[in-house]
Known about the structure:
- 39% of the residues lie in helices and 20% in strands.
- By secondary structure, the protein is of the alpha/beta class.
- Strands 1, 2, 3, 4, 5 and 6 form a six-stranded parallel β-sheet that branches.
- The protein is built from six helices and six strands, in the order βαβαβααβαββα.
- The mean pLDDT is 94.
- 43% of the residues are buried.
- The longest helix has 23 residues.
Amino acid sequence: MRARVVYESMFGNTAAIAEAIAQGLAEHASVEILTVVAAAEVPAQPVDLLFVGGPTHALGLSRTRTRRDAETRTDAPVVVDIGIREWLDAAFPPAPGARAVAFGTRIARPSWLPGSAARGAGRRLRRLGYELADKPMDFLVDGMLGPLTKGELERAHAWAERLAHTEADRIAHRF
Length: 175
C-alpha cells in the first residue's frame, strides 16, 4: 500500500502529528510525507490513502490573513502564500474510488470552542471526489503555540496504524 501525508504547520505541532502519522503508517505502507509547499511543487502521484492536515485557525482551515498573524507569533519561518485550503482548491479530482483522511490540530481549552481544520479539510476532500476512510480527526495542543497535549503523538501514531491496517486489508480483498 502507498500512502502520502500532506500537512501545513505554523508552530511545529501539526508537523509533529504528521510525522507520528507517517510512523504509524510505515508498518503497513510505503509512506511519503510532504509539506503543503512541497506537495504544491510536485506532480501528484496516485496513492492508496492520502492524509491531509493543518492547524485550526479562526475556526477552520488557515487563510493568508491567519498565516500572516501566525508569522508575527514565531521566529520560525511561516509560509503565507499557500496552505491546505489553497492546495485542495487547486487540486485535480482524484481517480474514482480514491480514499483520503483529514486531520488537524486545535486548542484543547476551552473544549467548547468550535471549529476544526480537520473537518474543513474533510469537506473539501469529499467535494473533490475522495471517499473518506475515516472521520476527520483533531489532535489537541495546549494553547495557541503548543505544545501538543500529552499523549497526542501516541494517539496519532495508533490512529494511522489502525487505518493503514484496515486499508491494507481492504486493498488485499479488493482483488
